């Protein structure tokens, strides 16, 4: 059984055609909450609420406003290490989890803060300290840490002590430091799209790294999807999505992200460069979407049966959580829920 999640575009990442701004699709309370309600009612298991500084709206404020109406799925709330004092962040997350009746999960983001210059080893050292400190406090335990970035000696706040429950931490990154951080402190290791052989090798590597910490990991996959009744329709929809993007526009969009120079982003560019002239790097995995998007830069493209078969191949490798998205997000979620979701054996992690 896999967890099937969707994506709510809090970071100004919703389009009819990539690179063509539609003010009706820019992130706002009305637009993003409409996506979440659609995903909730369609039967998805979880929804990712991303986080960005300059782009879009605040994630925790949005999650808190949505939480009372969430009854049948989880919320995967992104947080950026370093933005909030850790004990206060623990109080916020514990409060949010209480409103959600225990259905909170957390996506740990390790990028630099705006205006900050911090190399990979130091960023991931901060990330490990943050994850370990948050887990301790959310489990209601006393925190005693003298780290490079966090030095604290205090009891957990009352809400954490009375309802001790650290949500699952989802975390991703391809560098050695990122992989070690996941192995040491995460629960679910998230991967961006790649060829099946690379995905299998990454899973094996992370399992080995986690074993050195006497830990085990679950594995997740963050990928876009374009599903249509016929393969020609799916490919035409993919071509339409990027038809308005030229090289300069794509470069400008990708450069806006705080993680635009990360190992993971570079790997998405390599994947795109290795694809055929049609943008496909292997059957049904299309890299064209990365022409106008930093980060997750490929999509599963095909008929419902092709998409289902691709998902099942990933499941056979050991992936237990999927975070899908499509453009526009509401319409593609509805299409996926109609054509694909009923055929998957799914439920929350």
Q: What's the CATH class of the domain at 3-220 and 324-343, please?
A: Alpha Beta
CATH architecture of the domain at 3-220 and 324-343: Alpha-Beta Barrel
- Main β sheet profile: 8 strands, parallel, barrel
Helical content class: 40-55%
- Sheet with most strands: strand arrangement: 1-2-3-4-7-8-9-13
Q: Which percent band covers the strand fraction?
A: 15-25%
Mean pLDDT: 92
* Assembly type: single chain
Distance between the termini: 9 Å
Global structural class: alpha/beta
Order of helices and strands: EHEHEHEHEEHEHEHEHHHEEEHEH
Count the E strands.
13
Describe the protein:
This protein is of the alpha/beta class and 349 residues long. The chain has a domain at 3-220 and 324-343: TIM Barrel (Alpha-Beta Barrel). 41% of the residues lie in helices and 18% in strands. It is built from twelve helices and 13 strands. The chain has helices at 29-42, 59-66, 86-99, 120-138, 158-162, 176-185, 196-212, 231-241, 247-255, 263-274, 304-317, 329-339; strands spanning 3-7, 46-49, 74-80, 104-109, 143-146, 151-154, 169-172, 188-191, 218-227, 280-282, 285-286, 299-302, 319-325. The protein has an eight-stranded parallel barrel, surrounded by eight helices. Strand 7, helix 6 and strand 8 form a beta-alpha-beta unit. Helix 3 (86-99) packs across helix 4, helix 4 (120-138) runs parallel beside helix 6 and helix 6 (176-185) packs across helix 7. The radius of gyration is 19 Å and the shape is globular. The model has no long low-confidence stretch (mean pLDDT 92).
């Amino acid at each position: 059984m896999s967890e099937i999640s969707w994506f709510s575009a809090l970071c100004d990442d919703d389009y009819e055609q990539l690179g063509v701004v539609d003010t009706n699709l820019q992130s706002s309370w009305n637009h993003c909450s409409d996506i979440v309600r659609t995903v909730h009612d369609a039967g998805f298991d979880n929804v990712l609420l991303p986080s960005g500084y300059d782009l879009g709206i605040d994630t925790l404020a949005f999650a808190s406003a949505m939480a009372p109406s969430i009854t049948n799925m989880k919320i995967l709330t992104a947080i950026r290490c370093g933005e909030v004092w850790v004990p206060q962040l623990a109080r916020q997350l514990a409060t949010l989890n209480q409103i959600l009746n225990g259905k909170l999960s957390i996506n740990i983001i390790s990028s630099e803060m705006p205006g900050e210059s911090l190399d990979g080893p130091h960023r991931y050292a901060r990330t490990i300290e943050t994850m370990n400190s948050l887990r301790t406090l959310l489990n209601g335990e006393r925190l005693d840490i003298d780290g490079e970035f966090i030095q604290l000696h205090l009891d957990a706040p009352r809400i954490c002590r009375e309802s001790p429950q650290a949500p699952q931490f989802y975390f991703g990154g391809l560098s050695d430091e990122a992989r070690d951080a996941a192995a040491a402190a995460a629960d679910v290791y998230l991967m961006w799209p790649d060829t099946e052989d690379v995905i299998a090798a990454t899973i094996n590597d992370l399992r080995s790294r986690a074993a050195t910490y006497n830990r085990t990991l679950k594995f997740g996959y963050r990928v876009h999807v374009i599903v249509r009744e016929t393969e020609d329709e799916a490919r035409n929809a993919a071509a339409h999505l990027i038809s308005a993007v030229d090289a300069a526009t794509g470069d400008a969009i990708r450069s806006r992200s705080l993680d635009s120079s990360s190992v993971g982003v570079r790997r998405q560019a390599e994947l795109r460069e290795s694809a055929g002239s049609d943008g496909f790097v292997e059957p049904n995995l299309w890299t064209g979407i990365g022409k106008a998007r930093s980060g997750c830069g490929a999509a599963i493209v095909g008929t419902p049966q092709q998409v289902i078969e691709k998902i099942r191949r990933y499941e056979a490798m050991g992936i237990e959580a999927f975070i899908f998205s499509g453009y526009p997000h509401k319409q593609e979620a509805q299409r996926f829920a109609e054509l694909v979701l009923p055929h998957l054996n799914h439920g929350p992690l």
